[in-house]
Amino acid sequence: MIRKAALLALLTTALLVPPSMAGTAVAAPRGLGKIAAPANPLLVGRITPEVPREPTIPIQVTGTVTGTPMAPVRVRIHYSPGQPFRTRADMAQFATGQGIVTTSYSTKVQFTTLDQSGKLAFTFNVTPHELGMTQMGVYPFGIEVLDGNTGAQIAMDRTFLTYVPKDQQPPKIKLAVALPLVDRPHRADDSTFMDDDLHTSVTSGRLSKLLELVQSTGKTVTWFLDPAVLDDVRQSSAGPYTVVKGDENTRKAPDAAAAQWFEAVRTALADKPVMATPYGDPDVTALVHNGLDAPAAAAIQRGAAAATAQLGREVPTSVAWPSGGAADRDAIDELATAGVKSVLLSGDTLPPDPPVSTTPDAASRLDTVSGPLAALVSDPTLSQLLGGDVSAPGSALLARQRFIAETAMIAFEPPGSQSQGTPLTGGQTTGGGQGTGGGQTSGGARTARTIVVAPPAELWNPDPKFVSALLKNVSAAPWLKMTTLDSVKPTKAQVHRSDLVYTTRDRQAELGKSYLATVRKLSDKADAAATVTEEHTQLFHDAILRLTSSSWRGDSKRATAFAAQVEKAVDTRIDDVLVVGTARAVAGANGQVPVSVSNSLDKPIRIKIRVTSDNTSRLGIDAPGGVYETPETTILKSRTLLENVPVTVPQGGGEATIAIQLLTAEGKRYGDAVHVTVRATGYTGIALVIVGAALTIMLAAVVMRILRRRSRKSFPFSPAEPAGPESVPPPGGPQAVPADQRESPPT
């Protein structure tokens, strides 16, 4: 009896287990592996047409229920006869299951069982008339699966149906879509790749998907292109390239797939609206907050120039898209100062103030230190739907239905409403017989509002088929007209918005202070390396800008590795101009110390040399303030310069060091100071005493000899000098002697 009771309880439990629990992975104990998420037992595969236009047209719904084999289920629909949504807020509540929406329901699949594989495919048709759609609007629509025995809910998908009868002309809105063609950097310095991920990305990864999307979108979608992406791709395809992984350097052959991708992007963007991001898509807000305004401005200029060269047509940077669509006043002022005319922001960054129940026009004005700037505010809900993950089965359909319904609801909203909206009835017209919506001028003429949509993540990994189908379907909607982003301008009738909202969370997401301090140091070193030559170069300019990429947010480990490689390349370049650090010696109270500077570059350089003493008590620099600095000096390629530095040796001397710092012509430090040992002595004073004494002795000897010679000439009986060279008769015989010298002595 006990065994029978236990078996009966087990069977009863199995029957009562909802199908949603069947077929799912068993939860693994902690530490034993990843727990699989339960599969959705309800999959809605298709709803057609997406926008019914006639009351009797069949709306076909197909889907699949999955669960325990042979388990009984029922499928029913929920709808709201004659009650369209009043506001977008009501739609949001319904989508999350939190809103209270009065609905009716109808069982479309009666009590039936799943097949032996645990599946049930269903198809049913329903008309707008049966659903009580009597007027133009957006209506709730739910599909629910119930346990056939207990009536308990197993699953429910909530979606939306937009009904626009052909005899009712809906109001119009404009929709501008901005999409990013950006990537994280793959190169550190210009010749070194830190990974080989580009090949996979352009063949089957994210960049491949973006190319497919570029090729399938129309001429109204505006693309934001980071030219650093094309530079990386072109570098890997132009010739052999080096990939650094740890301590290993691998030489790779040119990537033909990258070359094909590059040309395909150029072709696809040839006739489409394109805006260039600042080079490397930098974290502009973080740069400004850390005093790196110059790189931010340089990235904007470089972005326009590089994109123009790559695409073969002018590509402006007049519209900026800050990371995450968030920025504060400091960043906006910097962008305006750098020449930006418009900025694309998230709706959460610039919300209406006071809050409104209807959707305002996307364009607004911002005052900056350089004059007014146009703020293009993207719609948060639509942007999230466009940029969201639709990889789960059925999620693409629900996202598309919601996107279409949201745009329709914006068009159907009463114009200028600041409080709870009222539904739009089919008979309402304004002026020319069209339904209300959009904006309205003082004369009663309707002006269409513009809505902007932009995916919230720059490193967006889209589903090209979903995005292409969504944009194609929505562009055919009778209430919507697609437009380009550069056509969106602030109007006179615009809603008042709050000041920029930049939260603590936004600040915490920025590139870190310590990391940007490293970037600042590298920027100074790279600038010195680029400007020391007579003809200035941009050798590490792009590499420094890539280090400021907003893609490094949350990826500090990889960013630090890139910065280390850039520093290594900069130091190698700087070391080609070096101070010869051989020890020197100087004797005496003053003298000169030779300083040698070698130029191993293949170009002449212009530098200054600054010398100071590290031990002034033992060695001083004989120059004003103890600092010896040469004027700007040219050193030819592969040559060495020798400069003599005057020094003084106080208190008898000793061993000391001097600091030799090379400077660019602009006075910036070039490399680190080199410290050279100088052995200084006080021997010069002793040497002078010795030399003086020797000279005195020599002088005394000379004087004594002269005196002896004079004394000999004055005494007549001095003995004859020994025969010597002077006594030899001159050639030709004896010479005549003057009479006064031939006189004999008196007797």
From TrEMBL:
<feature type="compositionally biased region" description="Gly residues">
    <location>
        <begin position="428"/>
        <end position="442"/>
    </location>
</feature>
<keyword id="KW-0732">Signal</keyword>
<feature type="transmembrane region" description="Helical">
    <location>
        <begin position="683"/>
        <end position="707"/>
    </location>
</feature>
<dbReference type="Pfam" id="PF19516">
    <property type="entry name" value="DUF6049"/>
</dbReference>
<feature type="region of interest" description="Disordered">
    <location>
        <begin position="413"/>
        <end position="445"/>
    </location>
</feature>
<feature type="region of interest" description="Disordered">
    <location>
        <begin position="714"/>
        <end position="747"/>
    </location>
</feature>
<keyword id="KW-0472">Membrane</keyword>
<keyword id="KW-0812">Transmembrane</keyword>
<feature type="compositionally biased region" description="Low complexity">
    <location>
        <begin position="416"/>
        <end position="427"/>
    </location>
</feature>
<protein>
    <submittedName>
        <fullName>Uncharacterized protein</fullName>
    </submittedName>
</protein>
<dbReference type="InterPro" id="IPR046112">
    <property type="entry name" value="DUF6049"/>
</dbReference>
<keyword id="KW-1133">Transmembrane helix</keyword>
<feature type="signal peptide">
    <location>
        <begin position="1"/>
        <end position="22"/>
    </location>
</feature>
